[in-house]
C-alpha cells in the first residue's frame, strides 16, 4: 500500500502501438511506475490492469496518425476487497473528471483529446473526501474524428487511496462499463464535418455526470492541472494509431484500414488490400 499526493499517468509516443491511446506510465509522489505494454510484454511488475481479451489483429508500423477531436474522461471504481477479485463489473463506475469540446465549434474547436496530444499527459485530482480503499482508475478517450463512428480507447490501473475521507457516490453517478451509452445516442454517433457541426458549440461527454465531489479539469497546457484535494493525477496518450505504407511498382500504397484520401491528405491514395472508400471530405479509408 502507498500513500500518495498525486499520481500522473504519462503518455509516451511509442513507435509500435497498434491503437489510438495508451497510458505508458504513472507517477506517484515523484516515482514512476510503468503501465502495461501490450506490444512488448515485460516481467517488470506493473500497476496497470491487463485486460484479458486484448488480442491484436495486425502488426503495426512505425508511423503515427494523431487526431485532436475527442474527449477524455477519468473514472474510478471501488473494489469490495482485494485487487485479485476486482473485475470492475456491475454498476460501480463513477466519473471524477472529463473534458470534451472546450471551445469553438464541433467542426473546428478545441477538444480535450487535443490537449492530451499537446501535453502527452492528463492530470486529475482525486477528491479529498473520497473514502479510502482499493480502486480501479479508468482513463477513457473517445475519438470522434470519423463521422458517425466513435472510437473508444480505455485503460485501467489499480490504485490504493488512503486518507480520512468518508464520501462515496451513489445513484445516477454510478454506471456499468460497458453499458453506460449506446451507439444510437446523439452525443455518441454524430458527424463533426456536417454543416450543423460548424455552428454547434456544446457537446455532452458520454457517460454519467461528474461526481460533485470531483472537479472537471480545466484545459491542460503542457503540464498537469491542479484542483482541490488529496489527489491522483492521471493522463492518457493522445488519439493516435499506426498506419503502414508499402511500395509497389506504381508507387506507394496504403494497407487495409489505413487512410487513403481526404482534403489535405498527401499520403498514398491506392490500397494494397481492399478499396479506398470515402467517409467524408476529410477522410477516406482502405476497407475490405
Automatic annotation (TrEMBL):
Its main location: secreted. GO terms for biological process: cellulose catabolic process. Keywords: Carbohydrate metabolism, Cellulose degradation, Copper, Disulfide bond, Metal-binding, Monooxygenase, Oxidoreductase, Polysaccharide degradation, Secreted, Signal. The keyword Transit peptide does not apply. Its EC number is 1.14.99.56. It catalyses: [(1->4)-beta-D-glucosyl]n+m + reduced acceptor + O2 = 4-dehydro-beta-D-glucosyl-[(1->4)-beta-D-glucosyl]n-1 + [(1->4)-beta-D-glucosyl]m + acceptor + H2O. Coiled coil: none annotated. It comes from the Eukaryota. One of its GO terms (molecular function) is monooxygenase activity. Residues 218-253 have a biased composition (Low complexity). Pfam families: AA9, CBM_1. Residues 252-287 form the CBM1 domain. Residues 1-19 form the signal peptide. It is found in: Secreted. GO terms for cellular component: extracellular region. The keyword Chaperone does not apply. It is an enzyme of class 1 (oxidoreductase). Residues 204-253 are annotated as: Disordered. Has a modular structure: an endo-beta-1,4-glucanase catalytic module at the N-terminus, a linker rich in serines and threonines, and a C-terminal carbohydrate-binding module (CBM). Lytic polysaccharide monooxygenase (LMPO) that depolymerizes crystalline and amorphous polysaccharides via the oxidation of scissile alpha- or beta-(1-4)-glycosidic bonds, yielding C1 and/or C4 oxidation products. Catalysis by LPMOs requires the reduction of the active-site copper from Cu(II) to Cu(I) by a reducing agent and H(2)O(2) or O(2) as a cosubstrate. This is AA9 family lytic polysaccharide monooxygenase. It comes from Serendipita indica (strain DSM 11827). The lineage of its organism: Eukaryota, Fungi, Dikarya, Basidiomycota, Agaricomycotina.
